[in-house]
UniProtKB/TrEMBL annotation, chains A, B, C, D:
This is TetR family transcriptional regulator. It comes from the Bacteria. One of its GO terms (biological process) is negative regulation of DNA-templated transcription. The keyword Transcription regulation applies. Gene3D superfamilies: Tetracycline Repressor, domain 2 (1.10.357.10). Residues 17-77 form the HTH tetR-type domain. InterPro entries: DesT_TetR_C (IPR054129), Homeodomain-like_sf (IPR009057), HTH-type_TetR-like_transc_reg (IPR050109), HTH_TetR (IPR001647), Tet_transcr_reg_TetR-rel_C_sf (IPR036271).
Length: 216, 216, 216, 216
DNA sequence: CATGAATGAGTGTTCATTCAT
DNA sequence: CATGAATGAACACTCATTCAT
């Protein structure tokens, strides 16, 4: 510990970009394992194999660091989804590919997902950040539904559309939580199940079936 | 230092049970506003109009206090739902009444909901506690679906049933989040919307329609 | 716990003197087990089967309570010794009886000994209290030695006498510690051993043998 | 609040080893003066001219800090004794030099002695730590006695030997306490006195004289 | 007489953050 | 560029002590 031989400094003087990625990797890992508050900058720095002042120099305060994690993971996720669900496909195909890409991402980045949702949801400072990202997802889903509806010659009020989309996104997140907790579970199968719930429900909507509260 | 006027001691020497409720009220409020970690026992005690040692004497450590909040709010919620959805009603009626009770509860106890889900989900020590409660909800929902299915002469594998129920619960929680964030929103309407998504999707399931991934 | 049936209050309204002895018993026990600081008034009160305010009403603050324990145990011990070593016996007989009474006392009141010495020695507020008691012991022992010396026609300077007496008392305390820690040990045997060390050394002194540092 | 003049920062950024010694010095002093419980980490830190977190970073919790003090002082003492009493000397010479070194040490490190014995004896968590150290002393003394006995062609049962050694160590500690309390006392003289008591008693033992309780 | 209810004051401990080297 | 050294500020938790009933 104390006697650190100064020769062969094991990967020093790396370019800034690389170092930043190492730090973010470490941060995502530690935030995911411990939660935002319980995570300590010491542990993150140590896990990144770097000293604390460097973390501050490169990525700022703890909150900023967390936001940086959020951004990176969120962007990666959105890219994975967007890359899979090209907009020139039929609606069900788009939805399926998007869902599959999403669950694949969650399955492969369980840490990232934990940071993204489980942590961010609970801590006020990041709720906004997260809301934005989720908002984009909701928009995409609502867009798909609207597109499909119009193709059928039907139309639904924007609020209803949004709420349905919101519910679908919520159901998806819920299954993502479930997936993140079950290491052995298969992302592909989970996607299929979600597709069943989502598409069947949405299909009804597309055909104009609705439910009304009984008038007592 | 602080000149405390000695007249009208504003509610001193209350019996234990009363004080405990006051404390829980304050705790739910503060936990909800600040989050578990950011909340301080000082603030909770002050908000309850009592000294810190009393909080410890009656309700234990911070974690135990949080769990107590969880229990009280969770129990209240479950009771509200169970009381509304009597088991001798037809499936759709039960679902509808349960959902309505749920959204009414969330609308009326936005603080409690925040404590229950937003906080508990993120903090490892309480994840288990929460998982149990959610598990009970999932079971109830799955039971409803199964009951309805059998009435139609159909049957679905237990895992599929559970996942569908899980997704529905997730969707519901998501809308509850949305409701908690939109003070002006109407619980009744939100319930109706959720019912649309849930029931229409479930109805499909009931009729045996399923979706399969395209085989490329 | 909460529902305490009010009939048969198990020994209430005892006369003050009895209650005080109960409290002291409890206090000695708890102080002995936990140490002065680690002991809590709550535990003492509970162990005495009485409420805290009563303890304060009867025996004062924690420090005063500890001093009360010290006094009672110290007095008991001194009485046991004094009663055994009547001053009209020959010196060795007196010493032997005194030692035997002492080790018997320690053996029978291990708790009291722990309070008396092990606790009191370490805590400044009581060091003086204790020094007085030990001083009396040293005086008694020095008196014995002086008496025996004069009987032999010899005399020793008062400081030397005191220091020798001090050393003997120290040796005795040390063996008392040892005895208190070894529940199975026999007080009688321990007394014999101490007598060997003490008397043989003292006997030399009585006969005028002395040791001088080598002059280099 | 406290106007701290910014010039001459009085010893900042010292290497770790130095700071640790400063802390231990301060800790020994404060523990000695106040006792373990009454001592506060704040006072120790302030006395060391450093902030509390540094104390925790370098030497751990309060208990660990106390143990560290115990170790340092104990080691110093043992080294002082061992260095003085070379094993190739005659028994009485060894004993004398050992005693002298011991009392010199106590006289010069009265704080250390208080920490070592007066505090440690009373607080359960450290009793074991201390027992070990005293045990080593007892062994050394018993070894000396045994050596001398065998040289005289005599032998004594191991328990008797140990108890005698125990008594001698106890007497010595007792005089050390006395010395620590009397600032003006001369360690050299105290050592001589102890030697008289010890050696004269031991000499008797060496020559086979024993005392037996009168059979009434 | 006896007690449950109540608290002020203090302590150990942690951690994000920043200099001086 | 990189880091060990350093700290301010806060927080959970405890306990001796005292009223009001």
């Amino acid at each position: 510990m104390l006697a650190r031989v100064s020769s062969t400094p094991t990967f020093k003087r790396l370019p800034r970009a690389v170092r930043e990625q190492q730090m973010l990797d470490a941060a995502v890992k530690v935030f995911s394992r411990r939660g935002f508050h319980a995570a300590s900058m010491d542990e993150i720095a140590e896990d990144a194999g770097i000293s604390k002042p460097m973390v501050y120099a490169y990525l700022g305060t703890k909150e900023e660091l967390f936001v940086a994690c959020l951004h990176r993971e969120g962007t990666r996720m959105m890219e994975a989804i967007a890359g899979a669900a090209a907009s020139d496909l039929p609606a069900d195909e788009r939805l399926w590919r998007g869902l599959r890409a999403f669950f694949r991402f969650v399955g492969a980045h369980r840490d990232g997902w934990a940071v993204l949702y489980r942590q961010a949801r609970g801590e006020q400072p990041f709720a906004g950040e997260l809301a934005t990202m989720r908002g984009r997802l909701v928009e995409v889903v609502a867009g798909m539904l609207d597109h499909a509806l119009r193709a059928e010659g039907r139309e639904v009020g924007p609020t209803d559309l949004e709420v349905v989309a919101y519910a679908l996104v919520g159901a998806t997140e819920s299954l993502a939580d479930w997936l993140a907790d079950h290491t052995e579970a298969d992302p592909e199968k989970t996607a299929t199940r979600m597709m069943n719930v989502a598409w069947l429900g949405a299909a009804q909507l597309l055909h104009g079936t609705t439910w009304h509260p009984p008038t007592p």
